[in-house]
Amino acid sequence: MAPSVTHVTGTVAGGVEVRFTQDGIAVCRFRLTETPTQWDATAQKWRDLEPIPYICTAWRDLASNAAESLVDGVSVLVKGRVTGVKDDSIYLSIDDLGISLRRRIAYTETSLPSPIAARPVTAPPVTTPPAPQPATASRTAPGRPSSPPAWWEQKRSANWS
Fold it and tell me: What is the value of pTM for the model shown?
């Protein structure tokens, strides 16, 4: 029987431990806690259930990347195979791992943020539109290097007839 594949969303609990095999293959291990919630109809609110502890193991590049990226308290999404249950913890061999974007912003090596990204995101200020300007014969469009052709101005001044 093939091991069951599962998807878990949880919070990294503690530090990420990385070691190397005799052949130089990276192996990392970290604890993950998932806190399921349930709707309480009488109280009309969500309530937390008993936390589910996981012990996750990743190999090779995934292990190296996890060791560099994960810290205590980060919410993650994990896809892995259940390899056992021991001491009230579920053991997972991780196939894929991602940082949850529900409460944070994540950047990749190729999409590092610009300094403008450090500013908080706010709504743009409300401005009133500028008052219409009277038409002039030598009006140029903003950002254009030259004025429109003469036939354009003639048609526009004759109300496009």
Answer: 0.64
Cα torsion 73, 79, 82, 85 to 10°: value is 10
Tokens of 135: 């038409």
Tens-digit pLDDT profile for the chain (161 aa)?
666 889 999 999 999 999 999 999 999 999 999 999 999 999 999 999 999 999 999 999 999 999 988 999 999 999 999 999 998 999 999 999 999 988 887 777 676 666 666 566 566 677 777 777 666 555 555 555 566 677 777 877 887 76
Instruction: List all residues 6 or more positions away from 67 whose beta carbon is below 8 Å from its beta carbon.
Output: 16, 18, 26, 28
- Dihedral through CA 58, CA 64, CA 65, CA 66, nearest 10? 50
SS3 60: helix
